Amino acid sequence: MTFHEIARSEDLEEGKGRPYTLEGQRLALIRHGGVVYALEDRCPHANAPIALGPVENGCIACPWHYAEFELATGRVLSGPACESITAYPVEEKDGFVSVSLTPLDHASA
Predict the structure, then answer these.
(1) N or C: which end of the chain has fewer CB within 10 A?
(2) Is residue 107 pLDDT above 80, yes or no?
């Protein structure tokens, strides 16, 4: 699995998402509980930028219609979205955050 350095650790605030693009993929990086998560930055319901949504209890909500997604897996928890979003592996070390574009397996995440 190849990881790509995408952000400095200090750029990610606790409880907030931030949008990034990596090799043409829109990603949302979210720090929650001291852990950084990477999700597809697109709500399947209306294409909203997930990175701008509120973060709470291990979830992020779509900023437009409040569909909820689990940070660790991208699994949809409440509508109006009916589909999960892709979650990606993250490594944080030496002050940098790196992401692999190999999607996490929802069943094992």
Answers:
(1) N
(2) no
